[in-house]
Every structure is written in structure tokens, then in C-alpha cells.
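Are you able to produce any protein sequence you like plus the matching C-alpha cells because I've never seen that pairing?
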Amino acid sequence: MSNASTIHRILVLDDDRLVVRLVCKALEEAGYAVWSATSLHEAMKVIRQRGLPHLAIVDLNLAKKESGIDFCRKIHRVADLPVIILSSEADEMIVSEAIDMCAEDYIVKGDDGSIRLKEMVARVGRLLRRVGDFAYTLDETVYVDNYLQINFTDRLAICDGKHIKLTPTETKILHILMRFAGRTVNIDYLLRRLWPMESAGEDRLHSHIYRLRRKVETDPTNPFYVVSEWGTGYIFPPPVNNHETIT
């Protein structure tokens, strides 16, 4: 079930309701489907109910001692969700740390809290073009075929009707591979996206792949979903229109 014609879905998280209204309006006028939240709890509730967005725009400093970094840590445990940080913090060190830790881009608000909305929309478009479409339709439970469905937020693989719990790393591997379904994902890219703040080796990745296959494949020794491209990386099958049962 391809989402080639699906409108990109963007989550806006900011505790300033005026900012949320302005950002959402600008994105909607640009043709995006927009969800909004004013707290970390509300943002996670929206994702649990609707599934993952294609991108999130997140305020760095939220109310109740929460932060956009907290949201990124939660969501990046299970998904490689692109994030743009929105903040009045312009300090070079803060900006660089946010980008290093969790964000693909960083937009600085004006001293009065204003946002260059046209620039923001342009940055969103550029980022979405760079990271590419999620090949499958992003729903609460992502339909792969009659045998396999994935619920990223609950970390579930539904295999032939059986609910199988995935680890956060296994879930994130699937999210990355499915985002680029039909294309080989390089091992080095996987390592950088899975463990951005660590120095991880191929053996660590291969161990997670081995356990993931034992959970989702009908025959782990002859995988259909998580397929090795020898010496290069891994590839997930692209969506098909006939949804044939995998036996």
C-alpha cells in the first residue's frame, strides 16, 4: 500500500498556542496535513492515536520543565523521525548540540517570538525532499501485507495475526528500512541513525537484525522482509498493490 499520493503529515509541538496556530496555518496553506500539541504528553497521545507523522516541528523549551529534546529522546527510541527544532535560543552551542543530538534543522524565533513562516515552510519542504517519503502508508498500524503489519508506537509486529513485541532498536531498524523500502540502506547509515551518540560496530547491528528476523520472518534463514545486500546493507521490499499473503 504505497503512500505516493499521500499528503505529508507534520506534528507541531509548542506550548505557545499562538505559535501553534500560526505555524499550522502556514503549513496547511502549503498543502501539508498538520497535527498539533502543546505538551509532551499530548504529542505522544496524538502519535499513539494517529500513527507517526512524516516530520515534527518541536519547540526546544516547553512548559512544565519539559523540552523538545525530551520528545526527541522518546520518539527516537523507536523511529527515525525527522525533527526541526523551533526555539528563541540562538546560542551557537545550544544550536549545535540540538542538531548533534536529535534534530535535522534548527529555526530561531525572533526576539519577539516571531517566526519567518515562509522560510520555515521552505525548510520543511527541503528536509522532506532530502529524507524521502515513507514508502508505506503511515497509519496507527502500518500495513505491509496480509502477513505483516507494524505498530511503531506500541513496538508491535503483527505476524499472521500474532502480536510480537519488538525492542526499541528492532522497531527503529524497521522504521528506517521501511522509509527507504525498495532501496538498499547502507550499513554505515544505519549505524549513524541507530546510535548517533555512540561508536557502534557492525556486529552490534547484525545481532539486532538476527533477532528481528526471528520475530518477523516466516523463515529467518531465507528472509523476505529484512534482506541482506552482501557487503552493502539491508533492503525492505517496496509496497505492492496485490497484497499477496506471504507463505
